[in-house]
Write a structure and sequence with these properties.
alpha/beta; Rossmann fold; 3 domains; six-stranded mixed β-sheet; 18 strands; binds adenosine-5'-triphosphate; binds magnesium ion
Length: 502
């Protein structure tokens, strides 16, 4: 149905994809995986015709629907505030889909939006909720091929699980990218692994866990072959040396041949060790911050209404002390990001007040990269920072922003690369309080764990929103704010399932 024929593409002089050949049948569910910056989004854009490869062709007959990794931005431009289009009007009238109002309501219900219906005003939805509407649109286009670039990034867990279950039964083909491994194990029939060192794709049958088993077996075999090859190369070389030590011309000639063979055997060793090369990993450490008062933040009866009479936050109160780790837990649209933005002064509350303690210096990680200027380069983006004695290039290097990449414009960076830069900027500033809104969203699995370890070592205070139960659990949370009931209290193990389930 889809055939990818010798596709190659380079960007800024770097090879991204090299001679990719793939075939996709009529009802296949593909998980496309690879580290941040490997070229997954680039390949998807080429498949759906949004980008031209340098070489090669795509053959596809049928209809394709595509969800871009930058959907949250596109959606904001597509549906401006103040527009009173309803969800139903958007899907049925504007997009011309063959869908009934009751079906829309059923989808909204399945996507954990029970309080919304086909009559709800689209521009009043939260970012995550708008993405859900966009997903309903895509699923109802009933295309022969769905191409989804990290569709679950902005979804709460029940919606993400529902989506993946829906995709399993989708009667046509799907290619999906996600760094959420729980989801990559559901209903995926094949893994396309984009190897960022060789720039090609390896195909593995089964889901993500099967893929992991197969590559670890492959690595084990390669290690064995490498060891055996090293022994052989050494043996031939030693023999050649022995021969060359003997005086006779005949043996000297034989030795020359053996040296030649030893060189070839050595080349095979190098080729095998290249096969075993692994992607580079971040090596981050958060510089320890200056100390501050014991009382970090006092929030008193904060309420927020965007639209008069429609409360988002009702009477939120909490006290945070130095060194505590606080998680804000609740489903999409409940107002988590709104609360964080109020506390860092980016939005104003309707009622109530908050006071930051003496000497607190608050750093904010926004899911939407508000602190990055898309038309500037990586280096230009970090000029204004107070680097103190930190070596700027070395620090960026720890976040894998190396070589020519520092001169790349932000808009050309991959999702994970932008996240790494946003984190580098945040950590360089030695804040003693970190307010983090879904910091793992675009990071590949290894990078998520590396960030987790760095945050665990950090001595300052952390206020975090995350839909990753494992991340919240391992971070060691002291207290939680449960939303929408706005209950603040000590962390209990049982809340973990609410990180995803509520
Ligand atoms: N104009 C450019 N100059 C140099 N490099 C570029 C340019 N445009 C894109 N790239 C690089 O191409 C690589 C592939 O990007 P792509 O967005 O396809 O990665 P990805 O696998 O989707 O990553 P992620 O998991 O972070 O979303 C990245 O390293 C990116 O920096
Ligand atoms: Mg991508």
């Amino acid at each position: 149905m889809l055939s990818i024929d010798s596709i190659s593409i380079s960007k800024g002089g770097n090879e991204i994809l090299k001679d990719i050949n793939l075939y996709l049948g009529p009802n296949e569910k593909i998980g496309l995986v690879g580290v941040n910056g490997a070229g997954k989004s680039t390949l998807l854009k080429i498949i759906v015709g949004k980008e031209e490869p340098d070489l090669g062709y795509i053959h596809f007959n049928g209809k394709v629907s595509y969800l871009s990794q930058e959907i949250h931005k596109e959606i904001v431009n597509d549906i401006p505030d103040g527009n009173d289009l309803t969800i139903g009007e958007y899907l049925i009238v504007q997009k011309g889909l063959d869908i009934q109002e009751w079906e829309i309501n059923k989808f909204l219900n399945n996507m954990n939006m029970r309080d919304k219906s086909s009559d709800s005003i689209l521009s009043e939805l939260s970012g995550g909720q708008k993405i859900k509407v966009e997903l309903i649109k895509i699923l109802f286009e009933k295309s022969n091929l769905l191409v989804l670039d990290e569709p679950t990034n902005f979804l709460d867990i029940p919606s993400a699980q529902w989506l993946m279950a829906y995709l399993v039964n989708y009667p046509y083909s799907v290619i999906v990218v996600s760094h959420d491994l729980r989801l990559m194990n559901k209903g995926i029939s094949k893994i396309w692994y984009l190897n960022d060192i060789k720039h090609n794709i390896e195909v593995y049958r089964g889901n993500y866990d099967d893929f992991l088993k197969q590559i670890s077996l492959k690595d084990e075999l390669l290690h064995k072959r490498l060891k055996a090859q090293e022994r052989k190369a050494k043996r031939v070389y030693e023999y050649a040396k022995t021969l060359s030590g003997r005086g006779q011309t005949k043996e000297k000639m034989k030795a020359a041949k053996k040296f030649e063979q030893a060189k070839k055997e050595k080349e095979k060793v190098l080729a095998l060790s290249k096969e075993l090369l692994k992607s580079k990993k971040m090596r981050i450490q958060i510089p320890q911050p200056p100390t501050c008062s014991r009382s970090i933040l006092s929030v008193e009866h904060i309420s927020k209404e965007y639209v008069k009479g429609v409360p988002i936050l009702v009477d939120v109160s909490m006290e945070i002390e130095k060194g505590e780790r606080i998680a804000v837990i609740g489903k999409n649209g409940v107002g988590k990001t709104t609360l964080l933005k109020i506390l860092v002064g980016k939005l104003s509350q309707t009622k109530g007040r908050y006071i930051w303690g003496k000497g607190t210096d608050v750093g904010f990680y926004s899911q939407e990269y508000e602190g990055l200027d898309y038309n500037q380069t990586v280096l230009e983006n970090v000029y204004g920072l107070n680097w103190g004695d930190i070596d700027r290039r070395a620090f960026l290097g720890r976040f894998l922003l190396v070589g020519d990449m520092v001169n790349q414009k932000i808009k050309t960076l991959s999702g994970g690369e932008k996240t790494r830069l946003a984190l580098a900027k945040l950590f360089a500033n030695r804040h003693n309080v970190l307010v983090l809104d879904e910091p793992t969203t675009y990071l590949d699995f290894d990078s998520q764990n590396i960030l987790l370890d760095a945050l665990k070592e950090y001595k300052g205070t952390i206020l975090i929103v995350s839909h990753q139960p494992q991340f919240v659990k391992l971070l060691g949370i002291d207290k939680v704010l449960l939303m929408p009931e706005e209950k603040f209290g000590y962390y209990k193990e049982e809340y973990i399932e609410r990180v995803g389930i509520i």
